[in-house]
UniProtKB/TrEMBL annotation:
Gene3D superfamilies: 3.10.450.50. It comes from Streptomyces nanshensis. It holds the Pfam family DUF4440. InterPro entries: DUF4440, NTF2-like_dom_sf. This is DUF4440 domain-containing protein. Residues 16-116 form the DUF4440 domain. It comes from the Bacteria.
Amino acid sequence: MVAGSSGDDPQVSDVIAAEYETLTPECRADPGRLGGFLAPDFHEFGASGAEFGVEGTAERVAAYTDPEGEAIRVERMRGFRLADGLVMVKYTSENNGRRAHRTSLWRRVAPGRWQMFHHQGTPTVDSRTRPD
């Protein structure tokens, strides 16, 4: 059952705000801040093809993030409530010239508190290099 991507759903709105926060250079450069958004069972398939668990993820992201740098560009972010306390977010990102389609799954862990437990990034196909 998908409740949809309406901004009228406070669960979807809360999760989209949290997702945007995780994309700011200030959050990404601070392992404690970013780590607070990651569930203990967090799992990621990165756009690089690598697979990551929660262990060391916030520190790894912080190591390559300039807190004064540009924010990751986001297109078409939308959220879908899959069930009460479970929201999926989808968007396209661009970071340092690399574009990826992204999906995150978030669960509510306390009233008003959400954690991401799964994330996947898939590189986009550049239309200039895509075969006809």
